[in-house]
Automatic annotation (TrEMBL):
GO cellular component: fungal-type vacuole
One of the Pfam families matching this protein, by short name: Peptidase_S10
PROSITE patterns assigned: CARBOXYPEPT_SER_HIS
Keywords in alphabetical order: Carboxypeptidase, Glycoprotein, Hydrolase, Protease, Signal
Position of the signal peptide: 1-27
Matching InterPro entries: AB_hydrolase_fold, Peptidase_S10, Ser_caboxypep_his_AS
GO molecular function ontology, one term from the record: serine-type carboxypeptidase activity
Name of protein: carboxypeptidase C
Family: Belongs to the peptidase S10 family.
Top class in the EC scheme: hydrolase
GO biological process terms, semicolon-separated: proteolysis
Amino acid sequence: MVILAHPNFRSIILFFVVLLLCNLASSQPVGKFPDYKVRVKEPTICDGAVKQHSGYFDIDDKKHFFFWAFESRNKPLEDPVVLWLHGGPGCSALNALFFELGPCKVNKGGNSTSENSNSWNSNATIIFLDQPDDAGFSYGEGVSDTASAAFDIYVFTQIFFTQFSQYANLSFHIAGVSYGGHYIPTLASLIMKYNNDNSNAMKLTNINLKSILIGNGLVNPLLQFVHFPDMACPLLDPLSCNQMKNNTQQCSDLTQTCYNTKNAKDCVFAKTDCFNTLIEPIEDASLNILDLRQQCSGILCYPDFGDIAIYLSRDDVRNALGVDPSVAFQLCSININNNFIMSGDWMLPFDGFIPSLLNSNIRTLVYAGDKDYLCNWIGNKAWTKALVWSGSQGFNNANDSAWITNNGNHSGDVTTFGVLSFLRVFDAGHMVPHDKPAESLDFFNKWIFNKHL
């Protein structure tokens, strides 16, 4: 592609890596975190058969992070630990818990829950973290960029493994969706940095990071947004299709300017133009940009989210979870999203962190439902193929293989070389575990135990 041929592209990505790591390292001192407090309960709702932990880590008097953790249904003191980071930015991880991959689903009307037999805690302990602060049940002064958010998450992991030391030596994986494509590479790089730089004086817990999983992620807008017409044109008339293709070039030019100048105004301008010309035409057709097979209806285009909001507003549920009485639950925070947009963070690339992770043998799975428009599979595959790492040539020369799930179905295509895998999931939208629960559990269980997909 022409975009990949830009002479400054690799140097721009490298600049962002160095800049972000410097920001992460200098944002505040790490170590003992002397001001943190813990307010935790052991609820029995949702999945009473496993041990749970929920409540707050108060990092200081300005940051209060809510989480809900479920032990593995299998061997909790041996199975891996997975931290789930939701997207938005500003959407609660509890959306994923109840709508996608957690131990239970909220029933219609929001008055009760039912078991999810395809929960990802079948063979792993799962931590659902509301972040950045002010998302979901978390509260605080707020942040507006990925570097600050990732540092806060890193502090959370340090406190978690200190407070619950029984999990500290288990294999650790970071997973997430959508804007998680910003958070996950940044956090993983931060973990590796402090694991390598740790000293006795800092007294940090070494985090046993084994892999990252990015689902339908927003990772590199420049490489991803150019593929919107590939998804949209089959649904549009020829005139609208050609117009979108023409608009794609302007979106790319503006995004390149954002990358070059690193100026918030330029990045906001790029985001506004790209969305107005490449995403609004799909929304104007009342299509769900998270699943092109559906019309958009209900809260966040899915009526079930309304039931989740009702359930999490009940006093008995909030009391069981240890929710602060002053906090009102938000499915997604418009304020957080706007703050990240206005800082320019939304349109920046974060794939520059991934080569060093791959070269350090941190296994990386990028999976994508092929009916999502917003963070579509074609764009996600494009940025994985553009990565420059020790296995680049092998990955780009590798053939797609049929992904056969335990039920014997051809459920997708997978490309693997070394520690990098890209998985296209057939007939799934933005939130793959919701659309393909059994198939998602299949690849998740195989992945965290380092088995062939």
